[in-house]
Sequence to fold (289 residues):
Amino acid sequence: MEIVLITGMSGSGKSVALHALEDAGFYCVDNLPPELLLPFVELEQKHNANRLAIAIDVRSATSLPLVPQHLDTLRRQRIVVKPLFLDATTDTLVRRYSETRRKHPLSQNESGHSERDERRALVEAIELERELLATLREQAHVIDSSIIRPSQLQGYVKTLVASPGGQLTLVFESFAFKRGVPTDADFMFDVRMLPNPHYEPALKHLTGRDQPVIEYLQAQSDVDLMLQHITHFLRNWLDALARDHRSYVTVAIGCTGGQHRSVYLVERLAQEFSPDWITLKRHREMDAL
Fold:
């Protein structure tokens, strides 16, 4: 049996992720109380179910501490468990709640306050939720949904669950600093100091996957040195991360526009590590086009 556990911040896209898993053939259950996790899995085993997606959120706040030990129990039963945590910045969550007029599950049922007071109360509820979910976040693969579209999120989730369970998966992600740093990265490398193809008229509108850009960057000694340094760092620590029972490690590479240097390095790193590790690629800015 394979179980994907979806947790995360309210408003971060858990429903979108659950719909993606339903499309991928998982039997999905939303807002399952943690007390029912083990009995529910046992029942589904009797029904010969082999792919479950379960969403647990802060509405079960009092019993959230049960989740980590329940996951350990399931793993001892040789069940593949993939915890995913959906996250977003506080500003993003406030904006989403303002646009939808939904009420945060931890908000008080008070009314008649000013807009400023309501915003402050919403921010406090979001920060309390972060605190309550901190342990689950630490033990899960985090997806930052702050600036990605629902279709991107669905694609990311489907790609992640398609990778084999029980082995560490490397996720290489390119991004643009001008659009904000991803909060889901385990390691982040800034490559903005490298020569920029953007300033070459013939290369400006191409990407790090196009041959002229590849040839330009391959000719730059600093680019090759950066690639060597990142590769050396990861090779030194990946075995230790795997021994620590990590399911996913996300390595984010950022440049100014997320189009040339970071894309090129993500492609090269994925090529370098794919013979030894399960490797996924993600280009945040290009995927959004």
Summary: The chain has a mean pLDDT of 92. DSSP finds ten helices and nine strands in the chain. The radius of gyration is 21 Å. The CA atoms of residues 144 and 182 lie 6 Å apart.
